[in-house]
Amino acid sequence: MANTSAGWALLRTLEGHTARVWGVAFSRDGHWLASASEDMTVRLWDPASGECLRTLEGHTSPVHSAAFSPDGRLLASASDDRTVRLWDPKKGKCLRTLAGHSDYTLLGHTDKVRSVAFNRDGRLLASASADNMVRLWDPKKGKLLRTLAGHTDDVESVAFNSDGGLLASSGYDETVRLWDPASGECLHTLDGRSGGVVSSVAFDPKGGWLASSGHNGTVQQWDPEHGYFLRTLDAQRAVWSVAFNPDGSLLVSASDDGTVRLWDPQHGECLHTLYGGVFSVAFNLAGSLLAGAGGDRRTVSLWALL
């Protein structure tokens, strides 16, 4: 089957990682695509040419997630080595390591770090860990600002809404939690309705929806302001990642069967299916490129809107 669907076509496949790719993220200006891998590296790519511009090395365990600050001056990476690293993507230099400790009273995560996300102005960095905690950092100073406790099992994903006033987290305790990052208060606890791990969360850019993905093969849509459940989308196989395009007109899910499904979030209809992603999906800011991590476990697929 051709890897095209209703205006989306496979542009190129990015090769270079030596183990499965867990996460992908575009810089806001679209000049960089980051991929986080089990090979303990983050690779930075030129999406236009497919060239690998540099490889960031330093983590001592698989890297699960990467995120660019809004101004593109920082890249955060999350690893099984219990650290978050902050990089200068232009120089490929590690600026700071936010490290874990064996004592919960000390700074840093005490178990694998699964996900990282910056807020809108880049002044907050959230990290999610298998130590059941979400931590909020000042990324420029490397200072721990707050620890969000409430999950009862591994936390797999974190995401800020568009104005940065709301933070969502999800994980193995089958819930989605909505937090006020300013106070650390948990505003809502949402039953993940997945019958299992809630692997990913994403806000639409306009703030009307929150999507969460489940290992039981479903995607849930929520009203994040009130914590209301809206609908379930059947993706058939375990869903690892969800993302909205920049204008909120598409919701994308990446499933264990190697498919990337594009949904109409307004009506819950599956519009198209692409092939080549499993673990993570991300749009560029223009909405013209879609990256999918790990279709064959070691590459990144890049689709273009024709």
**Overall pLDDT confidence:** 93
Total strand count, please?
29
Output the structural class. Answer: mainly beta
Low-confidence segments: none
**Number of separate helices:** 0
Euclidean distance between termini CA atoms:
18 Å
Query: Could you give the order of the helices and strands?
Result: EEEEEEEEEEEEEEEEEEEEEEEEEEEEE
Over the alpha carbons, how many angstroms does the gyration radius reach? 17 Å
Can you describe this structure?
This protein has 306 residues and is mainly β. It has strands spanning 4-5, 8-14, 21-26, 33-37, 41-45, 52-57, 63-68, 75-79, 84-88, 93-98, 113-118, 125-129, 133-138, 143-149, 155-160, 167-171, 175-180, 185-191, 198-203, 210-214, 218-223, 228-234, 239-244, 251-255, 259-264, 269-275, 277-283, 289-294, 300-305. The strands form seven sheets. Strands 1-2-29-28-27 form a five-stranded antiparallel sheet, with no helix packed on it. It has a four-stranded antiparallel sheet with strand order 3-4-5-6, with no helix packed on it. Strand 17 and strand 18 (185-191) form a beta hairpin. The chain starts with a strand and ends with a strand. The model has no long low-confidence stretch (mean pLDDT 93).
